[in-house]
Q: What sequence folds into this?
């Protein structure tokens, strides 16, 4: 088993790759090499091939050091210098794109700005129309369930509320791709569950393409259409698992046999990957 | 959602309670310290009276009060106070503006940092007051030389703290700006500078104290007017009561300046309290 996994990336459940919507994000042989201080090199990513379709919810899981954050940063335009090709909304090459919204592990709200001003930050940087952005900001704040908090400051909000605001902020400029880097990693288990359902609701309402990094197998299965399993040294894709659970998903599904089958499969794939 | 809303209400309520408690504590505290001050003045007055301590060694509080009154009534203290106050505030503002500006340039451009930083470290160990005689030679006995001395003395904490604050910015916030394609200047003014404000204010708090010090020492070295000049003059005449009276004026001036700084800080850094 380990020998197969180590040799070539294999695809699980290819039958579900129906001709759906076109790819919004395509990665062809994307490679990232870091030079270490001692003069050596580290292969953070080795020949990543990936196509994410419009309105698809894709999650990435893998042990730390498998390059999943690097992958997200490349798509988000935060890494300069990588091998291979990235096509985002028809545009080739890396760098910042206004078609991407990023939710970081930390909410990264600016503490001196009100909630409304924080949500409007990307609109301000991208010089979007003020009136339209303002209306949209109010809609998004309502969508994430924080109507009435517009004039509050980040220090008046709980961790979960701050992360909701950072999601609203990532959507203000109406990007087609939402990148989420372990968005619930800093939250407690209970808030995390609520947020999972909340994000699915937002995803359903906005039809964004979501690319999410997570450490939780349960979270990945519960939320995604497809889960990508990565393995470290060098960072590579070892499996892609389509999650054929019906939508809308609800918490009750967690105890279903089918759900358990998916988490079990992913657990085994991760074990192979870390060997 | 409702859980979060209750949590927020809870947080706000507890903050209000804290503020109220803090207020009541501060009023009792100030009553106690005022009582202590009155006690000390009484003991001092009685001791001078009892042990017949001569006025040119240690004047009684009553003598100081009389001297203080005469100083203001004759207009002597008023004029000299304004001279010193102008020097202090002008020098402080100069240090604040120039210090923040140089700090910003040093923190933003690595080449500038490489060139300037060794000089800064070397200059910081030098007692700036030691250059005061030189400044008097170059800029004369007037107010201008004192403004320069004050600025020189007060600029270093502002400069060093500005550099530290601008460099301490969260990578996450910078990544956010970068992912939006924000330029260097936009990132500076939207994220880096506000983020550095707590550091800059810490520097300004030190600078305001140094500014008064620089003003008085500058006057000691060479001047035509000011509260430091008055102290020297009174010293030559053995008018110790007047020295004390001027010290009282200086003390009140210092307290008022730091209160103003505190107010400015609370106004600009209201968001910082519960973060730290």
A:
């Amino acid at each position: 088993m380990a020998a197969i996994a180590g040799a070539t990336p294999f695809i699980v459940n290819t039958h579900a790759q129906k001709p759906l919507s076109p790819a919004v994000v395509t990665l062809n042989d994307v490679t990232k090499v870091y030079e270490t201080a001692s003069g050596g090199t580290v292969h953070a990513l080795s020949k990543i091939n990936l196509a994410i379709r419009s309105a698809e919810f894709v999650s990435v899981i893998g042990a730390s050091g498998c390059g999943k954050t690097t992958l997200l940063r490349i798509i988000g335009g935060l890494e300069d210098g990588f091998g291979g090709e990235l096509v985002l909304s028809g545009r080739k090459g890396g760098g910042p794109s206004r078609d991407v919204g990023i939710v970081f592990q930390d909410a990264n709200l600016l503490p001196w700005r009100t909630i409304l001003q924080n949500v409007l930050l990307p609109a301000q940087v991208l010089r979007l129309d003020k009136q339209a952005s303002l209306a949209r900001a109010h809609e998004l704040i309502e969508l994430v369930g924080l109507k009435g908090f517009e004039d509050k400051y980040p220090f008046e909000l709980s961790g979960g509320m701050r992360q909701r605001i950072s999601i609203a902020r990532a959507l203000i400029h109406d990007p087609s791709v939402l990148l989420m880097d372990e968005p619930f990693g800093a939250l407690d288990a209970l808030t995390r569950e609520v947020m999972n359902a909340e994000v699915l609701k937002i995803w359903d309402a906005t039809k964004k393409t979501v690319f999410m990094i997570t450490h939780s197998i349960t979270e990945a299965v519960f939320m995604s259409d497809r889960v990508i399993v990565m393995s470290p040294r060098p960072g590579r894709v070892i499996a892609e698992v389509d999650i054929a659970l019906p939508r809308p998903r609800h918490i009750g599904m967690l105890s279903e046999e089918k759900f358990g089958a998916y988490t079990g499969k992913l657990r085994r794939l991760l074990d192979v990957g870390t060997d | 959602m409702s859980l979060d809303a209750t949590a927020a209400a809870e947080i706000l309520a507890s903050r209000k309670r804290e503020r109220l408690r803090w207020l009541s504590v501060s009023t009792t505290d100030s009553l106690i310290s005022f009582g202590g001050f009155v006690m000390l003045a009484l003991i001092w007055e009685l001791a001078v009276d009892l042990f017949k301590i001569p006025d040119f060694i240690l004047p009684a509080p009553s003598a100081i009060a009389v001297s203080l009154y005469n100083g203001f009534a004759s207009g002597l203290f008023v004029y000299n106070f304004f001279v010193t106050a102008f020097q202090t505030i002008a020098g402080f503002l100069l240090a604040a503006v120039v210090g923040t500006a140089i700090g910003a340039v040093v923190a933003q451009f690595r080449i500038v940092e490489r060139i300037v930083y060794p000089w800064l470290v070397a200059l910081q160990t030098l007692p700036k007051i030691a250059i005061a005689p030189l400044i008097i030679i170059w800029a004369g006995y007037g107010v201008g030389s004192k403004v320069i001395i004050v600025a020189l003395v007060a600029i270093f904490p502002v400069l060093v703290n500005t550099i530290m604050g601008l460099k301490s910015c969260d990578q996450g916030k910078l990544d956010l700006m970068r992912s939006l394609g924000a330029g260097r200047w936009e990132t500076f003014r939207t994220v880096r500078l506000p983020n550095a404000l707590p550091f800059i204010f810490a520097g300004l708090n030190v600078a305001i104290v140094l500014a008064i010090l620089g003003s008085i020492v500058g006057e000691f070295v060479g001047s035509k007017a000011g509260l430091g000049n008055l102290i020297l003059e009174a010293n030559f005449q053995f008018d110790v009561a007047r020295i004390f009276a001027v010290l009282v004026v200086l003390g009140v001036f210092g307290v008022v300046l730091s209160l103003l700084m505190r107010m400015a800080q609370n106004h600009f850094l209201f968001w910082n309290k519960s973060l730290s």
Observations:
- Chain B touches chain A at residues 1, 3-4, 7-8, 11-12, 170, 172-173, 175-182, 186, 190-191, 194, 197, 270-275 (CB under 8 Å).
- The longest helix of chain B spans residues 2-50.
- Chain B has a mean pLDDT of 89.
- The two ends of chain B are 26 Å apart (CA to CA).
